[in-house]
Amino acid sequence: MNAHDDNDGSAEPSRPADPRELLTRTALGVFRLNGEFVSVSDGIAREAGLTAARWQVLGAVVRAPATVAGIARTMGITRQSVQRIADVLVGQGLAAYGDNPAHRRAKLLRATGAGREAVGRLGPGHSALAHRLQEELGQEGFAETVRVLERLSRAMEAIGSGGGQEPAARPAGPGRTD
């Protein structure tokens, strides 16, 4: 499907959807999309001698150092998985730990010169993927995709501490669209 297709890819007739069905379709779509992103990212990262996971962590500190816990929070992954990858990057000379003036024990991870060079080698593949997605989705469609995913992420963060419980009823207010 590309930006010129009229069909949105859904075979479902237009009807009010059950929220459970929408959640299931959203989750399955996000899981599938994550797998596709990891696969494509691994291909791009391989050109620089990295994996998608190493690119993700190294990319988080290429501009400014950050703690392992901070990287994990930003990326929505576990601190332990970031720690494991950070240790590999340090072992490869692509990153280094440094003192953190804000916290004695939580070291800052920073990219080394070799790490910045590795991330720089990702540029052509990253750019090619960005342009291919924009060709497929169209410029406005691509921008709308970003907005929808960011909105979904904020919504999941807002309800994340509730686990599997039904969300409490909240009164409608400014900015509420539900």
From TrEMBL:
Gene3D superfamilies: Winged helix-like DNA-binding domain superfamily/Winged helix DNA-binding domain. Signal peptide: none annotated. It holds the Pfam family MarR_2. Residues 20-154 form the HTH marR-type domain. It comes from the Bacteria. Residues 1-20, 157-178 are annotated as: Disordered. This is Winged helix-turn-helix transcriptional regulator.
